[in-house]
Amino acid sequence: MSGKLGILAGGGELPRRLIKLCQDTGRDFFVVAFKGQTDNETVMDVEHLWSRLGAAGDIISRLKKEQVTDLIMIGPVKRPSMAELRPDWRALQFFAKIGAKSLGDDGLLKSVVSALETEGFNLLGIDDILHDLLATKEIYGKFSPDAQAQTDIKRGVEVARLMGLADVGQSVVVQQGLVLGIEAIEGTDALIDRCAGLRRDAAGGVLVKLKKPQQERRADLPTIGIETVKRAVKSGLRGIAIEAGGALVVDRDAVVQLANESGLFLIGIEPADYD
Amino acid sequence: MSGKLGILAGGGELPRRLIKLCQDTGRDFFVVAFKGQTDNETVMDVEHLWSRLGAAGDIISRLKKEQVTDLIMIGPVKRPSMAELRPDWRALQFFAKIGAKSLGDDGLLKSVVSALETEGFNLLGIDDILHDLLATKEIYGKFSPDAQAQTDIKRGVEVARLMGLADVGQSVVVQQGLVLGIEAIEGTDALIDRCAGLRRDAAGGVLVKLKKPQQERRADLPTIGIETVKRAVKSGLRGIAIEAGGALVVDRDAVVQLANESGLFLIGIEPADYD
Known about the structure:
Two copies of one chain form a homodimer. Chain A is α/β, with parallel strands linked by helices. Chain A is 37% helix and 19% strand. Chain A has helices at 14-25, 56-65, 82-85, 89-98, 105-118, 126-129, 147-165, 188-195, 226-234, 252-262; strands at 5-9, 29-34, 48-51, 70-74, 122-124, 139-140, 171-175, 178-182, 206-209, 223-224, 239-243, 248-249, 265-269. Chain A is globular and about 60 Å long. Chain A folds into two domains: 5-126, Rossmann fold; 134-274, LpxI C-terminal catalytic domain (Cytidine Deaminase, domain 2, 3-Layer(aba) Sandwich), CATH 3.40.140.80. Chains A and B meet through helix 3, helix 7, strand 7 and strand 8 of A and helix 3, helix 7, strand 7 and strand 8 of B. Chains A, B: InterPro entries: LpxI (IPR053174), LpxI_C (IPR010415), LpxI_C_sf (IPR043167), LpxI_N (IPR041255). Chains A, B: Pfam families: LpxI_C (PF06230), LpxI_N (PF17930). Chains A, B: Residues 4-133 form the LpxI N-terminal domain. Chains A, B: This is UDP-2,3-diacylglucosamine pyrophosphatase.
């Protein structure tokens, strides 16, 4: 049996899924919940600490007191401004070391991972524990992209990669060669929703969701689930392309069933195939 | 006096401003209005043709019949899908020649410009006629960006440039190093509006608006005016940075007055200064 697992819980239901797995398998764990990020129900019946994101000193000393050995970051975390973050002394030292340049999503998360490793924790990725979540290169369900959809995926891959270089966004919606929307900080759900009003009168668009080229696998992977498919259908999209090995599919069976019922394709792609 | 001017009129009030100038200076002109793009009031009292965007054959033969020698594209044109475009035979030949690859905004517009030049027309840029619209490198009004705002402009320039390479978007909103939003097809107004709900609890963000690196000056330049400033203020932004020589400021005096009254800075920048 592995050591005690510290769960740094972001929003959504992924943290609860992991907690459930720990309970089912009898693995010891301790949850750090973040104000304004983690759902209340995630920590209702488990040992936990509520903390500000900026309270690095408190968090680290509590994790050590709880004799946590392994750490995992799971669930999306909304990026706060420095003012909201209110970093404590320990966090300030950390920011001073990494510099303001690292405030891009990925730079920051990479630095957090390496700082926690320096403190002696063993950092795990979600897919180290929830093995079957990671997207593979395949067509999920019974619908496939046609030639126009493949062209749209190619365009989406091109744009998403450039966005990745700038360390922003992972998601792009393309319809008939037109880039309808690009994700920044608003999140994929909001991106999909606004594309409902931007779509052209033609076969629907495609959501392309990649991990950033330099993304730290253990910090944050793009995730899709039932909610993503529901919104995509509502916004008139006809497909979703995610990066094989670089995105998580939560509730695979339910996702595939809904996609099939809705006439939506879901495909795991290797971006390099679209060069 | 120059030859007869053909005005390919997009949306908004810029085409009307140009028509007014032609009337005031006694220059002959003929307006092509596009369904779903041009405002009705733009062509109410002037000689014009209503056309689909895709009816290239009709447009070119009418322009020749009207003995138009110079052409100008003015005012934003929403990109249609191929299905909406319904290209005629002449337009299809055109698309066959340039290939589907050119459906990025700028690629398409460049090809349109060169096709019209092949037909013997002299293509003008807005700033060839409306000289004082082009943004210059200066601080407009009485407010200047502080150090944080300059850092945000730098980040915005970096992201906008990468977007330009992908031939999408020209506008980015950055607050405290966070990229709140990136413009795709929705337009700058919609980008600004949605950033109201994304802003962090701290000093407001900055709208950075550049022309794309390879942008055809005569096809479409980013434009700001009173409406842009109003929306920026409403969304809690504290400044706007536009590219000197690469953006238009419509109604300069009114824009500066509103910015001053609202505590907003407006600055014309050379992107290279932020490398």
